Amino acid sequence: MHRRAFLASGILGGSGLRAQTGPALPPPHLALPFVPPPGPYARRLSVFELALRPGDLIRFRESVRRMKELAPADPRQFFQQARLEPGGVNWNFLPWCRAMLYFHERLLNRLLPARRGEPAIRVPYWPWENVYATPARTAPLIYAEPNQPLFAVRRPFSVSIDVEPCLALRRGEDFVGTAKQAPAVFAGPFAEVVSATRLTPSDPLFYPHLANIDRLWTSWEALGDGRRTPPLREARGYFFDEDGRWRVIDLNFAGERQVLSYEYSTLMKPLHPGEPRLAQVHVFESRLERLPAPADYLLLRGVRVAALGKFARFGVFSGDEMLGSFSTASAKEDAEGWTVSVPAKGLQLRALLRVAALTDDGRAIGRGIPLLARDVLAY
Length: 379
Hints:
Blueprint lengths: L2 H5 L3 H4 L17 E3 L7 E3 L2 H5 L2 H15 L24 H19 L29 H4 L19 H5 L3 H5 L7 H14 L8 H17 L13 E5 L5 E5 H4 L7 E3 L14 E2 L1 E3 L2 E4 L6 E7 L9 E6 L2 E7 L10 E6 L9 E5 L11 E2 L4 E4 L1
Parallel strand pairs: 1-4, 2-5
Antiparallel strand pairs: 3-4, 6-15, 7-8, 9-12, 9-15, 10-11, 10-13, 13-14
Helix pairs in contact: 4-5, 5-10, 9-10
């Protein structure tokens, strides 16, 4: 399937994740309020750590098998879960992903309750951010082995994700997004992994991917220095609980990870820790006039790409060198344009910055257009 058709086909604002069958979801006004009750506190392990715990892996696989074998019309059935979607790809996105994992795990634990001394079942995270470890670039072995519930037919892929630009952000509005702007992780790691792997919620590996997105958010907040998630106002998420009842949850609850009773075995750390810098970059006619030194990354906000047509992925170029790429895998371009981070090292002053659409294999389509952005910041 061509990437544009794939990304235009469904859930999460056009990222290709909607189930293809199933009845319409109940209307929001029928949802019963849900407040997370106190629950057993448990740690989310990486897929590699879980592989070293045969007993926990067997229980996790068995709970997924039972979820898949529920009646097709049961809203809790594994493939029916893909019908759920967030209210928009904006500041709701990260807490919605966290809430989806929470309800997914509640169902897994209902289908296979823990016995005395056993930990609650938690979805493992897939640490694709470890760009130096070959196992992080392929489907984890516990998901790649055939003839078991975590297996799915997947095309070959390679995933190498740099999370440094996201971790370096300081403002909550830049990391989490706003009412009109997608969060940095959606235009970056989330979309890049989905684009490389074509993961959908019908693939069990999709949930470890969501868990690592949540881990990135958790890691960002843990760095401190002013990194705080802003209030989400009246944000709501709609899910089926472990009894199949239609529920509504205040996403501000999902923003409080401790309320949902889990933690991660490890957090992401910046490769280049230090005092963050943020400075305005002067740009004239799409050329850098002044760049604060030293600067590691440029944060381009309000990037315009409508003139290039309806493509799913774009690259930012300086001359013939591609600095970075970003995905426009949300339902529509928001009023402020797109936000993307690119490396600043090696940039030449007065070099023309341009944006070009990319093919499926990452090649530029034509020469593109001069970069048009609302503002450019360096950090």
